[in-house]
Amino acid sequence: MAYRETEKMRQRKAEARKRIVKCTYRCVAEGGFRSARVTRIADLAGVATGTLYRHFESREDLFAEIFRLATQREVDKVAEALATSGNAAERLERALRQFAERALKGPMMAWSLIAEPVDPKVEEERLAYRKAYASLFEKAIQEGIDEKCIPDQDARQSSTCLVGAIAESLVGPLSPTQTACATIDNNDPLVDSIIRFCMQGLTGTRR
Fold first, then answer.
1. N or C: which terminus of the chain carries fewer CB neighbours within 10 A?
2. What is the C-alpha to C-alpha distance for residues 19 and 26, in angstroms, rounded to an integer?
3. What is the spatial distance between Cα 59 and Cα 28, in angstroms, rounded to a whole number?
4. Alpha helices in the chain, H assignment, sequence order
5. Assigned CATH for 68-203
6. In terms of Cα–Cα distance, which of 193, 117, 129, 121 is closest to 163?
7. How far apart are CA 77 and CA 98, in angstroms?
8. Which of the two residues, 51 and 3, has the higher pLDDT score?
9. d(Cα 187, Cα 206) in Å, to the nearest integer?
10. 153-159, long-range: CB < 8 A, 24+ apart
11. Pairwise CA distance, residues 99 & 183, whole Å
């Protein structure tokens, strides 16, 4: 007779997977992907190491899942900011500020998502989500061009530049060597400086 998994067993497996994901997320938020050891994750989740590998084929697969979950939250927040009232330039400025302030509020996770050296499988996810951000910015930039609040330009190229500029400008401040010895404040002039640079490049107007 073929083995049939009961509903109770499926529920237990689903709960174990949720705990593994939750504990991995916590480890990454506290110390990055490099410090998220499988043995510690399993211990925090209350499962055997072998159980973890029944849910994820490899450590890299688990980390790719965490990266997707964490980055989707940030992409959604940027999308929310772009969906608020105001012209396209105002909404873009709001979205960029949202991105920067959220990164500074959770520096270790932001560092892990933006700049931490990662395995190729996780790096693929990073590239995919950079494209997701760029797609959102491209749409808003084109709307701004149509509204005449943003000068005519290549919206796709400009959106890619925006993603690169804001991410690169945060690498230094988010680095563990910096955040370990200083508390980053969202009211720091750093955020205003980053947003000013991005918007001046986009609109050609000093702000």
1. N
2. 10
3. 13
4. 7-31, 38-45, 49-55, 59-82, 88-105, 107-114, 120-147, 155-174, 176-179, 189-203
5. 1.10.357.10
6. 129
7. 7
8. 51
9. 21
10. 158/202, 159/133, 159/134, 159/135
11. 18
Sign of CA dihedral 49, 55, 56, 58: positive
- Domain ranges for the chain: 1-56, 68-203
**Cα 101 to Cα 109: distance, rounded to the nearest angstrom:** 13
| pLDDT, tens digit, 9 for 90 and up, residues 17-58 | 999 999 999 999 999 999 999 999 999 999 999 999 999 999
Span 85-91, mean pLDDT? 97
Do 1-56 and 68-203 come out as alike in CATH topology? no
Domain 1-56 is of which CATH architecture?
Orthogonal Bundle (1.10)
Report yes or no: 61 and 121 within 8 Å, Cβ to Cβ: yes
Q: What per-residue confidence (pLDDT) applies to 195?
A: 95
For residue 11, give Cα distances in angstroms to 5, 17, 18, 57: 10, 10, 11, 20
- Token pair, residue 7, equals 């509903």
Q: Are 34 and 116 in contact (CB under 8 A)?
A: yes
